[in-house]
Amino acid sequence: MKKQYAILALALAMPILSQAQSDEDALRYSMLGFGGTARSLGVANAFGALGGDFSSLAMNPAGIGIYRSSEFVFTPGLTHFDNQSAFYGSATNADKYNFNLSNLGMVFTNMKTGKANADNGWVATQFAVGYNRLENFNNRLIYTGFNDRNSLTSLYVEQLNANGGTNPGSVTGSFPFGAGLAWETYLINPNFNDSTSYYTEIQGGNIQQTKTLETSGAYDELDFSFGGNYGNKLYVGFTLGVPIVDYNAVVTYTEEDVQNVHDNFNQMTLTDQLNVNGAGINGKFGVIYRVNDYLRLGGAVHTPTALGLTDVYRSTMTSSLDTSGSYGYDSPTGRYEYSIVTPWRAIASAAITMKQYGFISFDYEFVDYSAAGFNFNRIGSVDDITLETALNNTINEKYTGAHNIRVGAELAYEVFRFRGGYAIMGTPFASGFAEGSADFARSTYTLGAGIRDEHFYVDLGYANTRSTEYDTQYNFSDGNGANEGATIDKTVSNFLLSLGFRF
Of 7, 56, 217, 393, which residue has the fewest beta carbons closer than 10 angstroms? Predict the structure, then answer.
């Protein structure tokens, strides 16, 4: 893990002014999940060569070329997040429910007179507008364990003692979201014989550490799509996507002297709040070709998404000390505007259709997470440019290209539909960066059913997504005595109900 510690050293060298940004932000807005309609969800979103479904706007916009009538659809959903965490040998469970709107929109179809069964020329054109939820940020995570090695305040001491030490008068101003909090709450103090070097009241660890992470928000996308049907053989489409980001996180971290080891320490609590809002733009191009009545092939390319984001963040620390009482200190409110560019995506699809009996479909998607990047406005300060370069180098080294596979099937019987699917989303990490099995890869099983009539339909969809992730509150730049992180087995259950009307 020497690569990781080299990257951490770079991060620690950066000013705390921009502490809210990390390579994890780029991954958060690049690794998107399951959304769209209940029908699409039921077949694991393997709809790239099928079309005729509103979720096509966000996957392969050529799919709207399949429409032969106009349509209105909306999809409410219920999502359950369940996390099983292991930290220093202790297991903890936390969960959260979230009601949401997965999509809402309309497709308008202009069928040319007398062209419905034509085998050449433009048969129909389509325009669609609506909304798709591409990632749900709601979650709740807790882990706790006894650390007999070190404390978060040990990291603050490392920061202050680096590069020849820090003048006491500069501690709070230089580290307002980190060491300055511990300084103001008397958890770290200057050494008696050298006031520019520091020690912590929590020497050697032996404390109970607990972290609670509560997140909310979503990555939603407004889609404006244009499609066409040429000779009932070739279907083309384009989507202009306007993603909207709303991400909110509250992290509560505590350390407690549960075994009465320390002479002058009882408890400390750090609360970090982060709110991220912004919007962006991207383009999606797609094509579907009907080889014959049974085989369809599809392909789509998604341009990088350019996101303009604003972070607003603040921190609060409280302490309880044996000899001098309790203290509290609030950081200033930080605000930072910046841009993130997410990677290109390429999708290849195939589907076997059996008219009134159903279909089998397959999607392959490639996305290179190492191609994501930050832009902190290069006419800004030297510190901004240095941080931007360090973060982009970290992304390039830490992440890699991922192969995502989706397979789905639908069985039709009169007006009834029965569906199932499976999807694999590959790890975003380059070799040597994942912590054991915690590689953030996702596997998803899906089920679905529906009733489809000439003028309306009702669909139910269910997806169960599992992944193993890793989280740590802090690490030391040289890797010595690093805090052990928590391994998190994450399960997301998503239930969708789509109601659609054709006209």
Answer: 393
Where are any strands of DSSP class E within 112-206? Answer: 122-136, 139-147, 188-191, 194-200
**DSSP string across 447-474:** EEEEEE-SSEEEEEEEEEEEEEEEE-S-
**Which tokens sit at 276?**
């991220």
CATH of the domain at 489: 2.40.160.60
State how far the Cα of 13 lies from the Cα of 442, in Å rounded to an integer: 33
Give the DSSP H/E element, type plus range, for residue 89: none
- Let me know if residue 192 belongs to a domain: no
Cβ contacts of 325 within 8 Å, gap of 6 or more: none
What domain range is 102 assigned to? 2-151+202-502
**Average pLDDT, rounded, for the chain:** 91
Q: Residue 462 falls within a domain, yes or no?
A: yes
Give the pair of three-digit tokens for residue 256: 């407690």
pLDDT, tens digit, for every residue of 130-140?
999 999 999 99
Instruction: Count other C-beta atoms under 10 Å from residue 254's C-beta.
Output: 18
Reported confidence tier of residue 380, pLDDT bands at 50, 70, 90? low
Under 8 Å CB-to-CB from 27, ≥6 apart: which residues? Answer: 369, 372, 399, 428
- With 0-12 / 13-18 / 19 or more C-beta atoms within 10 angstroms meaning exposed / middle / buried, residue 97 is exposed
**For range 91-95, the mean pLDDT:** 96
